[in-house]
Amino acid sequence: MSKLRESKSLKQNQRVAKNKAHLQHPLIRHRINEVKYNIDQILLGGFSPRRFCLMPFVNIILEPNGSVGLCRHKGTEHSLGNLQENTWQEIWNGEFAQRWRSEFLTGEVSICERETKDQGCNLCPQLGKMFPENPKELQVQMERPLRLTANFNGFCNLRCQMCDVWELPNGFYTEDNFWKPARETLFPHLKEIDMLSGEPFLQSDTFKLIDEVSALNPTCQWSITTNAHWKLSPKIKKALDKIQVKNLILSVDSFDPDTYHKIRKPGDLNRVLQTIESLRHYEKERIDRGLSPLHMNLNFLIQKDNWREIPQALSFCLDRNIHPFITFCYRPQEHSLLELKTTKRRQILEHLLKTLTWDEICLSHRVLSPLIDSLPPLDKALALDTMKQTKNAYEMEHPCD
Q1: Short-list 389, 388, 318, 310, CA closest to 352
Q2: In what order do the strands lie in the sheet with 221-226?
Q3: What does pTM read for this prediction?
Q4: Is the model's pLDDT at 6 over the cut of 50?
Q5: C-alpha to C-alpha distances, 391 to 19, 349, 356, nearest whole angstrom
Q6: Are 145 and 59 in contact (CB under 8 A)?
């Protein structure tokens, strides 16, 4: 019995130590401060942090088939128009775009109701830095985007089960319909570029965009989302050397080789892990040469196949000074936990709340929130009570945090 108590005590101490390490990690502290700054900017503008997002006022997203949107979180199917029918300027201030902005200006949010509630994506770190000095400049019609999400081509070396971008076309953006006018009306004014595509580092348009914008607008900040399923070549290093990197976002949805291969067909996890290590070494080289860090983030999309891997994903990231972003698969429904029967969703939630530490719960709120909301009222109440008990236990252990 004594050994059993010692073993139980050891496990509790290990959980507390891990809890402390995660919540006090400099990356997490920095991210919390960024979110606080964004919230402060929203409040200073006279808006509610729960019912306002700056993204539709500053961002435009261009899809491989010419479709135009305002936000990556809404997905490729949330289109405001198409460049085959209208110019991006016409779409930018079209009826749909104006209605979207109006919802945030009035606080009557419908289009992004679920995203702001469950994902908190409207509090995206560093987005607050794009707030105008005078909030009255935020209108239903905006002069031009300050941020470009470039999803130019569908080409990718993976066929992820929850993604359809690799099925989209390539080569839509030509000198006449994009590059020539963009040099005058778009590139010089951008504060940020967010590269998506199928796999950006395998597409010639990525390197062309880097060359063009870095020459015209060298202070532009870049975020690039990649599957890291490639080898870090001199060509990629040379391109990255030209830009100020805001984030390099790694999409990795499992640390089990078989599960990774199933989700990201026909992926090889070892290839990705090798690339991540190469990027870490390259980042040190960049810093030594006076260039910006890569500020690596790792997106981990929770779905039916990988929901047990949350602790492993968090530890992998923070042990390597990579910021973890645990998010939730809503679409396609066949891969989402929300498609499961109520009994199974309840079991999954109970398991997570029983096994996750408080810091892991905090960093997994985008997963837990939709699960809780999907259950009957009594189950919701029990889940929230369990979370409250876990939080109270943590605060007793760390009263100064």
Answers
A1: 310
A2: 81-82, 67-69, 59-62, 147-150, 192-195, 221-226, 244-251, 296-302, 323-328
A3: 0.90
A4: no
A5: 11, 16, 11
A6: yes
